Amino acid sequence: MRTPLVAGNWKMNKTAAQARQLVQEMLPGLQAVTTVERVICPPFPAIWAVSELLQGTGIGLGAQNLYWEASGAFTGEVSPGMVKEFCQYVILGHSERRAYFGETDVTVNRKVKAALANELIPIVCVGETLTENEAGQTAAVIERQLRLGLQELSPEQGQKLVIAYEPVWAIGTGRAASGTGANAVVADCIRPTLASLFGEAVAQSIRILYGGSVTAANAAEFFSQPEIDGALVGGASLKPAEFVPITQAAAR
Ligand code: PEP
Question: Is any ligand 1 atom within 6 A of the Cβ of residue 209?
Fold first, then answer.
């Protein structure tokens, strides 16, 4: 059995003060959903404030990025140890980081290894663009992202991963994939690739989330799919009236 996981990616939204207020609004609803792993990923300056509010609540905290070096002259970057002080999870390889900040499969791989070495759970994002989708390249793109992004990891390390399938054309567009379509990508490409990297048993144990315009209205469609183990939620994770019901749908 794979425990469902719902993570909220706040992206570059909310000051520390606003983050505190948003967490306070969501907290009672999120705490009631005990059978789902719930994770909030605020921007770095809000991490400390949110971590204080989440202590003892059972709700996890994640960062949206990290750098692979432990310390040094890397202006503007944040090390795994700095993240680990407050967080249990880290989103890596998000398509916005790949598109706007030069992240590649090679840098994703370095970050995944650094996160694991610091006992952080990486939520590794993969997914095809609209052009790649329309060219019939979805499986090839995702397989490449997984093979390069996860290269040189042992099965023991593989077991600790969470994968998020996020078709780029569905992120922030209001145009979600269909439940069956997303399930097919996971069943036909993502889990088989994980099995070839880490073995079938490990592949079966890895949580694979769907992300891309998930809302309270469509969440159940994804969670009813046998291969989808939760969601990475962007825009809707900033709205308690959306995010709490999404976690409730994952519990059903
Ligand atoms: C995301 O940023 O990971 C995401 C899925 O965004 P949205 O839910 O807004 O499409």
Answer: no
The CATH superfamily assigned to 5-29+36-251 is Aldolase class I (3.20.20.70)
Using the mean position of ligand 1's atoms as its centre, give its distance from the Cα of residue 235 in Å: 6
pLDDT at 224: 98
Instruction: Decide whether any atom of ligand 1 lies within 6 Å of the 172 Cβ.
Output: yes
Widest pairwise Cα distance in the chain = 48
**Which residues participate in catalysis according to the annotation?**
94, 166
pLDDT at 134 over 90: yes
Give dist(CA 184, CA 192) in Å, integer: 11
Q: Is 149 in the pocket of ligand 1 (CB under 6 A)?
A: no
| pLDDT > 90? residue 1 | no
For residue 232 and ligand 1, the question of a CB distance below 6 A is answered with yes
Q: Quick one: which of 174, 169, 175, 209 has its CA closest to 191?
A: 209
Distance between Cα 230 and ligand 1 center (Å): 13
Distance CA 223, CA 172 (A): 19
Tens of pLDDT, residues 20-55: 999 999 999 999 999 999 999 999 999 999 999 999
